[in-house]
Amino acid sequence: MSREEGATRRAILNLLKIGGTKSAADLSQQLGLTEMAVRRHLYALERDGHVRMQPLRQGTGRPVHRYGLTEQSGELFPKNYAALALDLLGEAAAKDEAAIELMFKGREHKLLGRYKPRMDGRPLRERVAELAEIQNAAGYMAVLEEKAAGSYELHEYNCPISQVADTYQQACNCELSLFESLLEADVERRECLAKGGTRCTYTIKAKALECDR
């Protein structure tokens, strides 16, 4: 996709965000492009899951096709969740420093309750693979390596909560504790993005009493 095509598709997304559903003719008029050109961009945005067509019937005859944004398109627009989270954490810390620890431990317990059923009764190799899938779904860009003697390395190349983790080390501590609880294994963090590393790397080994099947 050329830079010009990207700019046009961004303009279409912005118009739909601000003005709601529109027909290709509406967008054509607003953008100063032919309907055919607009439809080509709409088809591409629809294929990528950012736009959906919504037929609108107006009496008899063929329905008018209008286009609107999907929920998935929300990821394309600016958000300021990190700043909000930091502000809220800052307010909590100003009143009670211990509250920060409690908040992160509460999040850890919530995630443990959510994901533990996916681990129960499975051998370590499957638990580690499941954890990699969970982290990838959350945007961590996780890569799993199986090492010698049944040990593993989990690398995370992105941290969706990096701005929070840079300020509050409790976020990283709770992630390590969560991994240990989910995997029921010995987990060691060897590299950390929040401490200047190029990735977060965890070494995972079965506990001494566990025989990995």
Automatic annotation (TrEMBL):
InterPro entries: ArsR-like_HTH, HTH_ArsR_DNA-bd_dom, WH-like_DNA-bd_sf, WH_DNA-bd_sf. Keywords: DNA-binding. GO terms for molecular function: DNA binding; DNA-binding transcription factor activity. The keyword Protein transport does not apply. Pfam families: HTH_5. Residues 8-49 form the HTH arsR-type domain. This is Transcriptional regulator. It comes from Paenibacillus beijingensis.
